[in-house]
Amino acid sequence: MWTQPLRANAGLALAAVAAVMLVGRLPGAYHELQHAATAAAGRNELGGALAAADSLGLNDDLVRATFAEIPPRSRFAVVLPKDETAVEQRDSVAAITFAGLPPLLGNYLLPRRLVSTPVAGTYIVCFYCDAAAWSGRARWLGPAVGGGRIGYVTR
After folding, report:
1. Residue 124: beta bridge partners?
2. What integer pLDDT is reported at residue 19 of this predicted model?
3. Conformational region of residue 126, where left means phi above 0, alpha means psi within -120 to 50, and beta covers everything else
4. CB within 8 Å of 5: residues ≥ 6 apart
5. How far apart are CA 35 and CA 99, in angstroms?
6. Three-state DSSP state, 76
7. Which residues contact 95 (CB under 8 A, 6 or more apart)?
8. Is 79:127 a contact under the CB 8 Å cutoff?
9. Where are the chain's structural domains?
10. Is the dihedral of CA 130, 95, 143, 44 positive or negative?
């Protein structure tokens, strides 16, 4: 009988300690969540794309140009040179740069869609490709930057 009030008081004390701990940790948790959200925004925007591009040896200006020139909800293709080995030797471009460019842009340019074959109405990122071969089929949107050029396939 006498243990009944003791249990009730112990329960109240435990609830009070839990409430104090929750209130004490809440501001820290809020700031930690805010910091994580800020860091995630940097990774998901152009800053994250530039950091990933640096790891592949890509020029930041080319990545910026793809964001600026290729509109959201459009389709694009990455066109690479026919002889990547020759470009690697001539221009000191690493093989991983050619291999990593399409998936990098496919990821960071979302909601734009990466397609394997450029057709009319598709944007192209010509990375060390033969731009002259596209002269009658594509309209170039700007100058070549960092080994790449962005165009719009007209036919």
Report:
1. 77, 151
2. 77
3. beta
4. none
5. 33
6. strand
7. 84, 88
8. yes
9. 1-44, 58-153
10. positive
Length of the chain: 155
Structure confidence at residue 38 (pLDDT):
64
Angle between helices 3-44 and 46-56 (to 10 degrees): 60
Question: pTM, whole model, 2 decimals?
Answer: 0.69
Interatomic CA distance for residues 150 and 140, integer angstroms: 6
Task: Give me the residues paired with residue 113 across strands.
Answer: 75
Q: Which two tokens stand for residue 58?
A: 């890509």
Structure tokens belonging to residue 91: 């221009």
d(CA 87, CA 21): 62
The pair of three-digit structure tokens given for residue 147, joined into one six-digit string: 């080994």
The mean predicted confidence, pLDDT, of the chain is 86
**For the segment 77-105, what is each residue's pLDDT rounded down to a tens digit?**
999 999 999 999 999 999 999 999 999 99
Q: List b or e across 68-93, with b for residues whose CB sees 16 or more CB atoms inside 10 angstroms.
A: ebbeeeeebbbbbbeebeebbeeeeb
What is the arithmetic mean of pLDDT over 135-143? 92
> Is pLDDT of 24 > 70?
yes
Element (H, E) at 149: strand 148-153
